[in-house]
Design goal:
By secondary structure, the protein is α/β, with parallel strands linked by helices. The chain has helices at 29-40, 56-63, 83-93, 108-116, 129-140, 148-158, 163-166, 169-179, 184-191, 195-209, 214-223, and strands spanning 20-25, 45-50, 67-70, 98-103, 121-124, 145-146.
Length: 228
């Protein structure tokens, strides 16, 4: 968990002459409205909220907020469109928009999903509003922030572990399929995910292992004895 001394310290990379904007969305619009109103009190940030049925990607493309704060477990996701796909679409819509999670559901699965999707932090809805303020300040200042609830799951993931433990189960499965000579389409079918997600898992595994190219990844799988 990152603690910083000042709340809402403006990031020089994002400009000092206008308010930084935060867009809130939640299945409960009363909550997102309350968050926006609370954080607008000091006049430092420009916080807004949108209704949960809005097309978020289009809204981000139009308004280009500095931060989009949402509950990732509320998104309408499926095997052909998962959280990583959503994160990629948000970056395509607005390269400068950062993602911050705000959710009651705290688990290894949720944390891995938000990390893989490029979220810069996550705060439990059980946490005090002060933690939302600190999270926004950290993210807007170029950092990351996971509150104590998510941090308890994050620490084991970030500890000194063997390379294979750094990978998620899906990333391992994709690499094994690759080493078996399967196409992305076949791997996607076997894992019940989209082909685009297979490519994303492959790229993330390569980045985590500091390996580039199919041959290096295949060699890695064989060296670890994951297939015979």
């Amino acid at each position: 968990m990152i603690e910083i001394p000042k709340v809402f310290n403006l990031s020089p990379q994002r400009g000092q002459h206008s308010k930084q904007t935060v867009l809130f969305v939640d299945r409960n619009p009363v909550l997102s409205q309350a968050l926006a109103q609370h954080l607008n009190v000091n006049g430092i940030l420009d916080c807004r909220f949108v209704q949960p049925d809005i097309d978020l990607v289009t809204e981000v493309q139009l308004s280009r907020p500095d931060v989009l704060c949402l509950d990732p477990t509320h998104l309408d996701l499926n095997r052909d469109y998962d959280l990583m796909d959503f994160g990629r679409d948000i970056r395509d819509a607005s390269a400068t928009t950062l993602l911050l999670g705000y959710s009651f559901k705290v688990s290894d699965a949720v944390l891995r999903a938000v990390l893989d999707a490029g979220f810069r932090g996550c705060v439990s809805k059980n946490a005090r509003l002060r933690h939302v303020e600190i999270a926004l300040a950290a993210v807007l200042d170029g950092g990351v922030y996971f509150d104590r609830s998510f941090g308890s799951h994050l620490r084991p993931m970030m500890s000194d572990a063997p390379d294979e433990e750094i990978l998620s189960e899906r990333e391992k499965a994709v690499l094994v399929g690759l080493a078996r000579g399967l196409s992305s389409k076949q791997i996607a079918h076997d894992l019940d995910i989209s082909s685009k997600t297979v490519d994303t898992y492959k790229a993330r595994a390569g980045k985590k292992l500091n390996l580039s190219g199919k041959a290096d990844l295949v060699s890695y799988v064989h060296d670890r004895g994951w297939i015979t």
